[in-house]
Prior knowledge:
single chain; alpha+beta; 8-stranded mixed sheet; 14 helices
Amino acid sequence: MRTFILTCIALLLMGNVNAQSAADLELAEMLNSGDMLRLNDRYPQMKDSLQVPMLARLAEANLYVSFNQLEKAEEAMADLFTHHQQELDAQTQIGMSALRAMNFLNLGQYAAGGELGGTLVAALEQQVPFEQLYSFVFMERIGKALSHSPAPFLSRPTATQQVPMRIDSVGRGHHLMIPVQVNGITKDFIFDTGCSFGNFVSEAYAKEAGLKIVSDSIPVSGTQIGYVKLGVADSLCIGDMVYHHPVFLIAPPNAETDSVFSFDGVLGYHFIRDAKEIILDFEHDCFIFPEQPSEAEPNMYLSSNTPKIRIFYQHQPIDITFDSGNVKSDLGAWFKERFPDAIPQDAQERPLKRGGFGGVESFTGYVLPEITFQLGATPFTLRQVEVVNDAENRLAAGSLGTDFLQAFKRVTINYDKMFVKGEK
């Protein structure tokens, strides 16, 4: 979604040629490049030099969404549409409206998100194919189905909590499992930073746990666009912590993926966000929820509710998707094009498969015996890493999966200050 929004900014500045400053041009360049960590670092230093207030509101809205400050994001977007809507071209209005609708859903202001999503669907359904429309339909149907539901929130003891971790072998890698109780039923869920809305569960689990179904036709995208049901429960319990009013996307059976692995549930974005900080302790096989979140400089931001982490390869920065539900890290076409020397000259192209919602996709690519990156100043090595030839570049730089986490003794994931820290 962010790419759609930011490609319009250079055009917007063309209409403000007489008013723009060097700071405006630098800000537009950072927004167009999507370099949110650089923007987060530079914006406080440059905001007083900006001459185009509309551009400042655009930057603030994107920064607040990216760094998980949802209430401030809504304030910035409300100001943008109240005072600067006439300065926005049609594409930017659509993009920022979509960002605002999703932000409403993340805040638990479901009716507002559904109404805005419905406005976008009505405006575009005769003009664009469903493949470009489905995310707006998702917002509309989620918002309408949950319009009378309370916003989720976490209640927990003040003391640090510790919950057991199970590591399951799956295909070429592993899943990290965490015990979750709903309606008296306890099952191990996949701990998944890549699950971008609520939680994801199987139909069999939804029936066993007695989830209340509030919609049966929510479009989602995986290997293809398909439909899931939407369910709710009064609460979800992890250890002594209670997450009130959780939301569940309920996947239908799929023979192709079910033959590879079966699952009960996936713990996703909203709980992980509201927990603020989670420490994965691989020496003691447990998840730790500290009494107080720690402090560090950000090296992570959100893109469509999915985190991206800044790592380094050959001293060059890479913003890469962080998907702990991915059993093994992989690299995409962007990485191959940026670092062609990372692929050995004698590497043989081979068939590869990737599974997900909707089935299993086939690609070609290479397998690197090992490759070393840095997280901050700490090196980590990944082994047997697939470099996927993805013609549509959907993987971008790639995805850090469970093996990334297992490269450390302890990993701190912090959605409060937006950082990931690994300890050897």
